Q: What sequence folds into this?
């Protein structure tokens, strides 16, 4: 972990940390619940697939029928190990499951099986960029637990319908230290964690389906004062909502304090329709969960050879991969980070480079033109209509002078529309069909340049008197006369030779 | 054998005898079932059964006969037994003695029920028990007995004004009254051993983890164990062999120890068997009649070749608070699932969710259950956990260690099962602590997870049966059964029947 | 330390038990009678003693058994909901849950 200005200790030592809001310092910690991508539930063999008819994926164990008992899913433990390895945490050789007791209709046993005193993953950190600034957030712990069911309110008057399909889905609850100092940092952390859990394949990251839910603990204080009372914003399941909710909460807390009122500890919900946070329950109702070790589950033992086996099967992590791109391809840290946003994107880049594309142009096209289009169409790189091999061919044709940059953009547009991720030869076929080949015959080009110069004595005169704009106008004329097929570099060189020589 | 001889002997035959007669086709499973069903209906005044369904039983019996005829019948094919209503069954309702589960029909069978069925047994019905197995007298019954319209305490066949013991009182009474040759029971703090002692039958609780708890309505998870109750050690051995064995798919506390044939060494000599008698088990609190019967039994054992050794279990008295704190804590959590949402009782009227919970649980639970939930909730609650729950777990270890020290000097530990014979119905009145104190000799083995057995060794005050408790070291069931069997070969206490049976 | 009636109120609320006033009073007396027994246990010196959560941990180290990640439970909704107090369109109905 880097000893950057943004650590909690730094803050405690009075060093500057995040941007102040109306003179207040913001302190944020996160608890994230990531649903694990196992086929079956953590303690039963019912399926975890999303979208099934209510209670068709809740077996007797999930419904807490009398006499049922939990049996632990190895796949959930393995995913916890993977997370621990990815975050540089300690994996507890022995951890204990505990019952968290409370009553709620979507909690069938009247207790949640979780981990309390001894969690499976301890410590670790997440490093990321906020803009161009590197930051590190420390983790306290991550523990395994089961998800609750769902309450549906819409269709029933005065009643709620309980669906226990989700009950028993394995979760990793990932808890940070209160190291974040701004909304931007908090959202960046969440994005990085989201990227990591999907990168290592432990969570599908589908936030709309509830696979990745964040609770943000937010407090404010004047610099130098002790920590303010925090409020917890629960169940933020989109980065946009996270940003809106935290921003609102910060402003709300500051206004309360400015008006002379103290902040009461509370759990709050964000309402996306109003953009406001509103308290659910106050400290007085804080539950006494009566945690005790679950007598139905002996301690979880994880031997070091299991950890080493998982370590050996781990994919290269995004930051290591980005570092490798910087070292071996000479990309900037920023670009390398962009390319390693997801495994699929990195693989696309690797495939383009393998097919012969130079890394820098490949990176530019992917993080520029392609990223823009993917965002606008709300699709992933896997659905990109242009294949990596096609991109490599296109880049190659620019490099060998067959087409100009301008023509390349037009070509790409057509390729994207054409779709189907056809073979690279389709690129050349399209160049032909669209007549995009740059003029390679220097003789013909010279003729055009001479023609244009002959017709533009005024521009020549202006250029000779120091107006560079006139030069560009001449370039433009030549390009127009060549119907865009002239190689701009060549045109520049030729004109310069004629005019200056 | 004449028909009259045959049928009048059927209920005197134990499991072994019936199994042999069925296999030799001297009697059919249907005949045997009918015989016992008739006795059950005639014996309704005892209140032993809470669910009887002649047709369901006869259907099982017919299936058994078919298998016997086909020559592919398992060892106990057609043997009728009854199940304590703590075990969930698909063919019969399950109430666990509680209004909370009135009418409940489980979609699955308890593992122990399934294994006994696979061994060929036929279910005669479900047996009354103290509500959620909480009680020592089978007076805490909230569901009507079969053939009656009210809930009634179960009566001891030896003296109908006295309790049969609990919580497996229905099981003990049914076996003693020859309404069934054998029954299943569960033992958490003595609930097999004590009623066996009070009703003059044989019962054994195996080492914790030997028999699967899947399908046993949970009372105290780290203490509950299933076991057989019958009129001989030989019968218990047959049934225990079928009941025990790993259940890795369903019960995480089920041990990996393979299934064992406990009958194999029944006939072994007792020469040199060291019987440890703790001074704490023969103190002033033991009634003189009980003491005399136990002394006589120990003398008999010496005649059989055993040696009596003085040992000490210094923390015997502490087992009472330790047990009642731990059992109550686990129970308070296990019973949270009874909330009126998914199954079982729900109050008819309520104004909101909180009201529904409160009314449902108030109506559904009896007084003793509520008391234990209160104790359990208290000892787990914030500020009390360390002083009560954690302390109890620590003293539990000390008690287990004390046993290991004792077993360094002896092979089995012996003493009375209870300080007195069965007391009169209602005698302990409104003082639950009086019941708790009477458990003093059975609780220690429960806390340590050791196997324990009760064998009838005579009568005490008021001519009521007295049981000798034998406690073995872990996995020592075969030795216990062997010791009881050799005693039963030399004496006939176990063959005696209550007057009028 | 004896329990007070405020303890009874707090505990009953945590356990979602509603006790009538005379029931509460009786419960207080009975619980205090029980906790008198407990005092001897509290006095035991247990410094350095490991709690015994699973009895067979006294025999040796037991570890949690893990099963393969396979979804093999079929849809048994009808059987599982057979004893449900209130069901509509497969959902368990309860009084409205207010957050």
A:
């Amino acid at each position: 972990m880097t000893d950057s200005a943004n650590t909690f200790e730094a803050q405690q030592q009075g060093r500057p940390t995040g941007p102040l809001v109306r003179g207040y310092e913001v302190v944020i910690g996160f608890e994230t619940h990531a649903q694990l991508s196992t086929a079956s539930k953590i303690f039963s063999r019912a399926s975890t697939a999303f979208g099934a008819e209510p209670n068709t994926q809740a077996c007797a164990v999930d419904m807490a029928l009398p006499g049922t008992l939990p049996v632990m899913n190895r796949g959930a433990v393995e995913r916890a190990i993977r997370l621990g390895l990815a975050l540089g945490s300690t994996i507890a050789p022995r951890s204990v499951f505990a019952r968290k007791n409370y009553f709620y209709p979507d909690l069938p046993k009247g207790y949640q099986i979780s981990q309390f005193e001894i969690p499976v993953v301890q410590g670790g950190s997440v490093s990321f960029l906020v803009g161009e600034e590197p930051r590190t957030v420390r983790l306290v712990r991550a523990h395994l637990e089961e998800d609750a069911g769902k309450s549906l309110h819409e269709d029933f008057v005065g009643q709620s319908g309980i669906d226990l399909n989700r009950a028993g889905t394995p979760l990793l609850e990932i808890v940070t230290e209160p190291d974040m100092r701004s909304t931007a940092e908090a959202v960046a952390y969440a994005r990085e964690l989201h990227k990591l859990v999907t990168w290592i394949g432990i969570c599908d990251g589908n936030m709309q389906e509830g696979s990745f839910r964040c609770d943000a603990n937010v407090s404010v204080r004047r610099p130098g004062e002790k920590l303010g009372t925090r409020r917890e914003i629960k169940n933020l399941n989109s980065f946009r909502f996270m940003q809106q909710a935290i921003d609102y909460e910060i402003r709300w807390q500051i206004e309360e304090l400015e008006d002379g009122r103290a902040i009461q500890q509370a759990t709050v919900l964000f309402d996306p329709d109003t953009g406001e946070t509103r308290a659910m329950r106050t400290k007085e109702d804080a539950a006494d969960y009566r945690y005790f070790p679950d007598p139905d589950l002996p301690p979880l033992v994880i031997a070091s050879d299991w950890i080493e086996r998982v370590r050996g099967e781990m994919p290269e992590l995004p930051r290591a991969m980005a570092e490798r791109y910087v070292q071996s391809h000479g990309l900037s840290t920023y670009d390398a980070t962009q390319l390693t946003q997801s495994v699929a994107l990195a693989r696309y880049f690797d495939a383009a480079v393998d097919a012969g594309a130079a890394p820098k142009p490949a990176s530019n096209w992917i993080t520029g033109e392609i990223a823009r289009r993917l965002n606008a169409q709300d699709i992933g790189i896997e659905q990109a209509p242009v294949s990596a091999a096609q991109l490599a061919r296109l880049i190659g044709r620019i490099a060998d002078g067959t087409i100009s940059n301008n023509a390349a953009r037009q070509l790409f547009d057509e390729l994207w529309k054409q779709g189907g991720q056809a073979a690279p030869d389709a690129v050349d076929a399209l160049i032909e069909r669209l007549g995009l080949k740059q003029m390679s015959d220097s003789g013909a080009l010279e003729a055009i340049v001479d023609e244009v110069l002959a017709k533009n004595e005024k521009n020549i005169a202006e250029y000779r008197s120091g107006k560079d704009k006139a030069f560009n106008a001449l370039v433009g004329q030549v390009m127009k006369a060549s119907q865009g097929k002239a190689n701009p570099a060549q045109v520049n060189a030729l004109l310069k030779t004629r005019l200056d020589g | 054998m004449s028909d009259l001889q045959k049928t009048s002997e059927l209920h005197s035959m134990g499991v072994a005898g019936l199994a042999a007669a069925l296999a030799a086709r001297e009697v059919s499973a249907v005949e045997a079932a009918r015989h016992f069903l008739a006795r059950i209906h005639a014996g309704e005044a005892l209140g032993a059964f809470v669910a009887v369904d002649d047709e369901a039983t006869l259907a099982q019996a017919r299936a058994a006969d078919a298998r016997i005829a086909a020559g592919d019948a398992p060892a106990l094919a057609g043997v009728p037994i009854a199940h304590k209503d703590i075990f969930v069954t698909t063919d019969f309702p399950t109430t666990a003695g509680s209004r909370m589960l009135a009418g409940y029909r489980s979609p699955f069978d308890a593992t122990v029920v399934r294994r006994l069925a696979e061994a060929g047994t036929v279910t005669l019905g479900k047996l009354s028990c103290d509500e959620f197995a909480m009680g020592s007298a089978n007076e805490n019954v909230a569901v009507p007995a079969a053939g009656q319209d009210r809930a009634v305490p179960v009566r001891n066949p030896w003296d109908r004004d006295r309790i049969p013991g609990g919580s497996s009182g229905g099981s003990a009474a049914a076996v003693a009254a020859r309404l069934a040759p054998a029954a299943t029971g569960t033992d958490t703090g003595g609930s097999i051993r004590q009623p066996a002692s009070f009703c003059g039958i044989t019962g054994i609780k195996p080492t914790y983890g030997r028999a699967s708890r899947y399908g046993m309505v949970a009372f105290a998870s780290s203490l509950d164990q299933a076991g057989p109750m019958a009129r001989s050690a030989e019968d218990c051995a047959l049934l225990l062999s079928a009941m025990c064995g790993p259940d890795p798919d369903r019960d995480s506390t089920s041990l990996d120890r393979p299934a064992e044939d406990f009958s194999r060494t029944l006939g072994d000599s007792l020469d040199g068997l060291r019987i440890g008698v703790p001074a704490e088990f023969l103190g002033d609190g033991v009634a003189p009649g009980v003491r005399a019967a136990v002394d006589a039994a120990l003398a008999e054992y010496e005649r059989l070749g055993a040696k009596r050794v003085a040992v000490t279990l210094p923390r015997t008295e502490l087992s009472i608070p330790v047990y009642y704190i731990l059992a109550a804590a686990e129970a308070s959590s296990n019973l949270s699932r009874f909330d009126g949402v998914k199954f079982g009782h729900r109050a008819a009227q309520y104004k909101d969710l909180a009201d529904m919970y409160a009314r449902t649980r108030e109506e559904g639970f009896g007084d003793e259950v509520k008391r234990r939930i209160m104790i359990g909730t208290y000892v787990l609650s914030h500020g009390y956990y360390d002083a009560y729950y954690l302390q109890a777990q620590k003293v539990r270890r000390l008690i287990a260690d004390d046993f290991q020290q004792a077993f360094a000097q002896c092979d089995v530990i012996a003493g009375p099962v209870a300080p007195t014979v069965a007391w009169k119905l209602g005698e302990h009145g409104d003082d639950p602590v009086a019941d708790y104190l009477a458990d003093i000799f059975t609780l220690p083995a429960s806390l340590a997870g050791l196997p324990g057995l009760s064998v009838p060794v005579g009568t005490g005050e008021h001519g009521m049966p007295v049981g000798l408790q034998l406690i073995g070291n872990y996995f020592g069931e075969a030795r216990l059964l062997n010791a009881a069997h050799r005693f039963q070969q030399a004496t006939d206490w176990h063959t005696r029947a209550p007057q009028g049976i | 330390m004896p329990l007070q009636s405020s303890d009874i109120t707090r505990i009953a609320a945590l356990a979602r038990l509603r006790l009538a006033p005379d029931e509460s009073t009786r419960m207080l007396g009975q619980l205090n009678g029980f906790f008198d027994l407990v005092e001897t246990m509290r006095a035991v010196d247990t410094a350095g003693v490991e709690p015994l959560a699973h009895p067979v941990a006294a025999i040796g180290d037991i570890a949690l058994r893990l099963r393969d990640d396979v979804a093999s439970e079929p849809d048994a909704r009808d059987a599982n909901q057979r004893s449900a107090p209130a069901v509509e369109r497969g959902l368990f109905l309860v009084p409205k849950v207010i957050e």
User: Anything to note?
Assistant: The longest helix of chain A spans residues 239-258. Residues 316-434 of chain A form one domain.
